[in-house]
Amino acid sequence: MSVALTSAASPTSTHTDKVRVMVVDDSVVIRGMISRWIGAEPDMEVVASLRTGLDAVNQLERINPDVAVLDIEMPDLDGISALPQLLAKKRDLVIIMASTLTRRNAEISIKALSLGASDYIPKPESTREATAAETFRHDLIQKIRHLGPRARRSRPHTASPPLAPSHDRPRAVVTGAAPATPAAPVQLARRPFGLLPPKVLLVGSSTGGPQALMALVAEIGSVIDRFPVLITQHMPPTFTTILAEHLARTSKRPAHEAVDGETIKAGQIYLAPGGRHMRIARHGIDAVIALDDGPPINFCKPAVDPMFTSAIDVWQGSIMSVILTGMGSDGMRGGKDIVAAGGSVIAQDEATSVVWGMPGAAANAGICAAVLPLNQIAPKLVRVFSGDRS
């Protein structure tokens, strides 16, 4: 039987201010654990705890959640089958896919992103392992907190909660007409593109990144053919294996998880493997991959900053870097170092980012030569790598 749960209102947040979360998982232990975590947060509440995807589809309109945490493997109707039915009933529903860390579930989670899921999160193999459970809790709460307001702001006839700083606000990707009353554009400081011709393309991304990366690599074939492309996407092991395969199919160029010590060559896409930082080092006349099993940086592993900063020792100012959609500020400090060395940074704009955290941090730091919609980044890269420095 399905049980709906509603948490008590916090004195610091009214009922309508809270992000409404629906938890859908066939494990009563997982449902209870997630519900307790969410119930302890002042800005969110569990409005339903359900056992199957069929329960979620049937009760969605009555519950009217902002966010659904949706398990993949469930009886009656699994998560990947429930996903399109949920979005058909509530187009702005934020869906976070949750699954144990297997190759099959990683493949399904990435497929779910292409079907409209907002994000994914790997569940720990055992909730008894304190470190794994705490990482799961932290990541899940952060994803709900950053993605939930996107749906909450579209909720009619509710009080408007205070907005977070713009670089933390999640945005739906723009696909249709502009808003009826667009806000005046904020003028951000721009730097000129570096004077040296770029010899490498470095890309960093997080939330919303897999979709953005697919769109980008599909349009920069001429760049990949002549220069190496290195990507750090915040993603766990197994998921990066699947993402590399998708990048290879989409770009029609070789793409793989980077291997420690391998020589970096033009015509290849190198993806930081989940759970390892990807740095660049010099070995004789060659640039090589140097994987790092050190602690998380910016709460991430892999992180973008070590890739950006280490590249300077190899290519100095001949670096073109791109920061795509994602939570947090990873990539901003490394981007500052790249610019100081004479290289360039392009950031994805706020309107086309799922979360304008990482690119927003770079843009607001004044280190970007351009802040562009996603569909304009690839053409700009093709021009820059062909000699256009304007």
Detailed description of the structure:
- One of its GO terms (cellular component) is cytoplasm.
- Belongs to the CheB family.
- Keywords: Chemotaxis, Cytoplasm, Hydrolase, Phosphoprotein.
- Residues 20-138 form the Response regulatory domain.
- One of its GO terms (biological process) is chemotaxis.
- This protein is α/β, with parallel strands linked by helices.
- It folds into two domains: 15-154, Response regulator (Rossmann fold); 200-385, Rossmann fold, CATH 3.40.50.180.
- Helices cover 35% and strands 19% of the residues.
- It contains twelve helices and 14 strands.
- It has helices at residues 28-39, 53-63, 79-89, 103-114, 130-152, 209-217, 221-226, 239-251, 304-315, 332-340, 358-364, 374-385, and strands at 19-24, 44-50, 67-71, 94-100, 119-123, 200-205, 229-233, 255-257, 269-271, 277-283, 286-292, 319-323, 344-348, 370-372.
- The strands form three sheets. Strands 8-9-7-6-12-13-14 form a seven-stranded parallel beta sheet, with helices on both faces. Strands 2-1-3-4-5 form a five-stranded parallel beta sheet, sandwiched between helices.
- Helix 10 (332-340) links the parallel strand 12 (319-323) and strand 13.
- Helix 4 (103-114) packs across helix 8, helix 6 (209-217) runs parallel beside helix 8 (239-251) and helix 10 packs across helix 11.
- The longest helix is centred in the middle third of the chain and has 23 residues, at 130-152.
- It is globular.
- The model is unreliable at 1-14 and 156-184 (pLDDT under 50).
